[in-house]
């Protein structure tokens, strides 16, 4: 993707992510790659997010933003609790609006004429791999559709394996899940390290009569990806070769094109739903090399006041300077009190607490020694690329399996899964900061990934192959 911008061509991709920060980021980096290859991109937001992005959403010449309603009233917070509602309203209200829009933009509409804004008709859809309606509708309208799943190949394989785990009697957990350290045998290639606690979190509540609606929806969408023209994953062969090798046998085609954020260092436009706090970098500048613990639990995690207190006490005991992201919607009503408590307890010179940080720049900063993360896939990849050791406290869904890979396979961090206790926080953070072994694994992995995305590397080649594939579908 490092090549100079190619001449614009008539391949025009409509991309449609799930309207959540992690998905938006991956799709933005993906779109930047398409633009650099010369394609046109229509980025489909929801009305709510496009309003929230405001001026930040100004488009570049071959990129435009359009939107459809997500079906929820504007004052409903788009937090983790509203995800099932959001997914449902997207598949009804959102899907209907998307169908109308795509019908007017597709190849053949208005005799295939170019629109007044210079955009050719849409020739291909790349839709989020958990919104199967988006690629079904596209194909019904005669537009070839590809699924892009923004999470890891490993988590995709785990969701794909859920029906088999049920068939094998591994799910629901036979003894009610009593021992979460029991091994899981039914996810191919992961037999030697996967435990019940590493499966997507919603598997824990599965019973003979109850299935979490989100698990049901994600498993159905994952299985349905077999029908898409291809599956795109934001990963690389060096990180997830064995999982990819299994998926290649299951899907029509698989493109491992990540880490996308590292392949397009200058994104076409910003898609951050929160404003970065400008104080972070100057504060880090004043700290010694590898001395700071950076904590961020992503865009959806919510924590209780008790969990907050355990983190706080553990970090105070570990005694490193801390840069802490506490999103305004993360702790509910006790947020302000928590903030004051943190600053008073740690001391303002030793802690900076912000609502949102420029995470990629933070992780790249020489002062950051480790990253206490919820193991969202974007955050994981961002830490991998910078070679920063992780302390993982996965919150939900795919994060449980991502943290297992970090702790047991890549060994570039430590997995605190299911424990939020001050003594463990202290010990684990200390180990991540001090362990030469963890730091050198993180460094070696970053170097390998750098090779993957460089010219001739596996991800760079895959991206080229994908652009060719899209052009072929568009012709
Ligand atoms: C969750 C998942 O865990 C993820 O794996 C899934 O694919 C989507 O839903 P999220 O909580 O958003 O995502 O986490 P993550 O995937 O890590 O994405 C968060 C993004 O926000 C990252 O790109 C990160 O750099 C950015 N971020 C986070 C900031 O820019 N500033 C912050 O302060 C915190």
> What is the beta-strand fraction?
5-15%
The Cα radius of gyration reads 22 Å
The amount of helix comes to 40-55%
Q: Give the terminus-to-terminus CA distance.
A: 22 Å
Describe it for me?
- Its EC number is 2.4.1.-.
- By secondary structure, the protein is of the alpha/beta class.
- The protein has helices at residues 21-36, 47-53, 83-105, 132-140, 153-167, 213-224, 237-250, 260-263, 279-285, 305-318, 335-346, 359-364, 377-386, 399-410, 422-434, 436-453, 458-474, and strands spanning 12-16, 40-46, 63-68, 124-128, 145-149, 231-233, 254-256, 292-296, 322-325, 351-354, 368-373, 390-392, 413-415.
- The protein contains 17 helices and 13 strands.
- Strands 3-2-1-4-5-6-7 form a 7-stranded parallel beta sheet, sandwiched between helices.
- Strand 2 (40-46), helix 2 (47-53) and strand 3 (63-68) form a beta-alpha-beta unit.
- Helix 3 runs parallel beside helix 4 (132-140), helix 10 packs parallel to helix 11 (335-346) and helix 10 (305-318) packs across helix 15.
- Uridine-5'-diphosphate-xylopyranose (UDX) is lined by residues 20-23, 25, 150-151, 272, 296, 298-300, 325, 356-357, 359-360, 376-379, 382, 397-399.
Q: How do the strands and helices of this protein lay out in sequence?
A:
Layout: E1 12-16, H1 21-36, E2 40-46, H2 47-53, E3 63-68, H3 83-105, E4 124-128, H4 132-140, E5 145-149, H5 153-167, H6 213-224, E6 231-233, H7 237-250, E7 254-256, H8 260-263, H9 279-285, E8 292-296, H10 305-318, E9 322-325, H11 335-346, E10 351-354, H12 359-364, E11 368-373, H13 377-386, E12 390-392, H14 399-410, E13 413-415, H15 422-434, H16 436-453, H17 458-474
Parallel strand pairs: 1-2, 1-4, 2-3, 4-5, 5-6, 6-7, 8-9, 8-11, 9-10, 11-12, 12-13
Helix pairs in contact: 3-4, 5-6, 10-11, 10-15
Bound molecules: uridine-5'-diphosphate-xylopyranose.
Family: Belongs to the UDP-glycosyltransferase family.
Keywords: Glycosyltransferase, Transferase
Protein name: Glycosyltransferase
């Amino acid at each position: 993707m490092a090549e100079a911008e190619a001449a614009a061509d008539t391949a025009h991709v409509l991309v449609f992510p799930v309207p959540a920060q992690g998905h938006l980021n991956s799709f933005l980096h993906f779109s930047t790659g398409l633009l650099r290859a010369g394609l046109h991109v229509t980025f489909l937001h929801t009305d709510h997010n496009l309003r929230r992005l405001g001026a930040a959403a100004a488009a570049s010449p071959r990129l435009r933003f359009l939107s459809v309603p997500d079906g929820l009233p504007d004052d409903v917070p788009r937090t983790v609790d509203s995800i099932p509602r959001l997914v449902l309203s997207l598949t009804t209200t959102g899907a209907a609006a998307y169908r109308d829009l795509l019908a007017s933009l597709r190849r053949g509409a208005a005799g295939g004429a170019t629109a007044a804004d210079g955009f050719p008709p849409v020739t291909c859809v790349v839709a989020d791999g958990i919104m199967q309606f988006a690629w079904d509708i596209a194909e019904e309208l005669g537009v070839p559709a590809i699924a892009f799943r923004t999470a890891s190949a490993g988590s995709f394989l785990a969701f794909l394996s859920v029906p088999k785990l049920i068939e094998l009697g591994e799910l629901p957990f036979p003894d009610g899940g009593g021992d979460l350290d029991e091994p899981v045998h039914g996810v191919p290639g992961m037999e030697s390290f996967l435990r019940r606690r590493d499966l997507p979190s919603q598997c824990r509540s599965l019973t003979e009569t109850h299935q979490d609606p989100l698990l049901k929806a994600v498993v159905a969408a994952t299985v349905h990806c077999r029908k898409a023209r291809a599956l795109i994953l934001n990963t690389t062969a060096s990180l997830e070769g064995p999982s990819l090798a299994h998926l290649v046998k299951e899907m029509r085609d698989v493109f491992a094109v990540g880490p996308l954020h590292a392949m397009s260092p200058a994104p076409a436009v910003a898609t951050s739903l929160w404003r970065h706090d400008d104080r972070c970098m100057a504060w880090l500048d004043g700290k010694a090399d590898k001395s700071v613990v950076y904590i961020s639990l992503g865009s959806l995690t919510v924590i209780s006041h008790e969990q907050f207190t355990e983190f706080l006490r553990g970090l105070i005991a570990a005694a490193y300077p801390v840069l802490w992201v506490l999103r305004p919607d993360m702790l509910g009503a006790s947020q302000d009190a928590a903030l004051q408590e943190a600053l008073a307890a740690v001391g303002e010179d030793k802690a900076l607490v912000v609502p949102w940080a420029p995470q990629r720049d933070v992780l790249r900063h020489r002062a950051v020694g480790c990253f206490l993360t919820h193991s969202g896939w974007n955050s994981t990849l961002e830490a991998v690329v910078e070679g920063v050791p992780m302390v993982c406290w996965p919150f939900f869904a795919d994060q449980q399996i991502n943290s297992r890979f970090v702790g047991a396979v890549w060994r570039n961090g430590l997995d605190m899964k299911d424990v939020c206790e001050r003594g463990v926080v202290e010990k684990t953070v200390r180990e991540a900061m001090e362990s030469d072994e963890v730091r050198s694994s993180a460094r070696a992995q970053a170097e390998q990934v750098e090779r993957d995305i460089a010219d001739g590397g596996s991800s760079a080649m895959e991206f080229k192959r994908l652009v060719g594939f899209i052009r072929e579908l568009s012709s």
